[in-house]
Amino acid sequence: MPTDYSLHDLVPDAKVALEFGVHIKTIGRWGKDPNLDFPAAIEINGRFYRWRRELEEFKRARVVRRAATKESSAA
C-alpha cells in the first residue's frame, strides 16, 4: 500500500453503495468477483471500507472501457 494513503481516505461500503446507486450487498459481491477488479475491502471492527483513490481509479477504468466499447460497436 502506498504511504500517501490516509485513514481519511477510507470510504465505508454503505457510502460506496450510495455513490454507485446499488445495494450494499452488491458492493460485497463486486468485491468477490475477480473479473470486475473492484477495489478490495479493508475490515475494521466488523465494518468494511475501500480506499477512495482505488474507487476513483475503478470509475475511470469503467468509463474508458465503456467508451472503447461504444467506439468499437459504432465502427
Number of helices: 3
Major sheet: order of its strands?
1-3-2
Q: Distance between the terminal alpha carbons, to the nearest Å?
A: 40 Å
Mean pLDDT: 89
Tell me the series of helices and strands, N- to C-terminal: EHHEEH
Strand % is 5-15%
Q: Residue ranges: pLDDT <50 for 5 or more in a row?
A: none
Shape: elongated
How many domains?
1
Main pleated-sheet profile: 3 strands, antiparallel
Helix fraction, binned, reads 40-55%
Radius of gyration: 14 Å
What is the structural class?
Answer: alpha+beta
Could you explain how this protein is built, in words?
- Helix 1 (13-20) crosses helix 2 (24-32).
- The chain is an alpha+beta fold and 75 residues long.
- Strand 2 (42-44) and strand 3 form a beta hairpin.
- It is elongated, with a radius of gyration of 14 Å.
- The chain has one domain.
- It has helices at residues 13-20, 24-32, 52-74; strands at 10-12, 42-44, 47-51.
- The longest helix is centred in the C-terminal third of the chain and has 23 residues, at 52-74.
- Strands 1-3-2 form a 3-stranded antiparallel β-sheet.
Task: Identify the notable features of this structure and list them briefly.
3 helices, 75 residues, 3 strands, three-stranded antiparallel β-sheet
Brief characterization of the structure:
By secondary structure, this protein is α+β, with helices and mostly antiparallel strands. It is built from three helices and three strands, in the order βααββα.
Layout of secondary structure:
Layout: E1 10-12, H1 13-20, H2 24-32, E2 42-44, E3 47-51, H3 52-74
